[in-house]
Amino acid sequence: xxxxxxxxxxxxxxxxxxxxxxxxxxxxxxxxxxxxxxxxxxxxxxxxxxxxxxxxxxxxxxxxxxxxxxxxxxxxxxxxxxxxxxx
Length: 87
Known about the structure:
This protein has 87 residues and is of the alpha+beta class. The protein contains three helices and four strands, in the order ββααββα.
């Protein structure tokens, strides 16, 4: 798993095929209403907080997931409540 801060309010998470397998996820089945997806998402965000300082726990977030060429996925997490406060 690679974690890249794109800005104060945005994080890019790159999951390898092994990461996807570990979390029991596929790009086609990621659904926040699914308990497995929700647990995986919050585990990833906990790791992101400890490694990068990106803390999404107190904000609303917008999540975009795209399959990548390696068989994993790229996930973009944007804190939207922080963005609306800036306006």
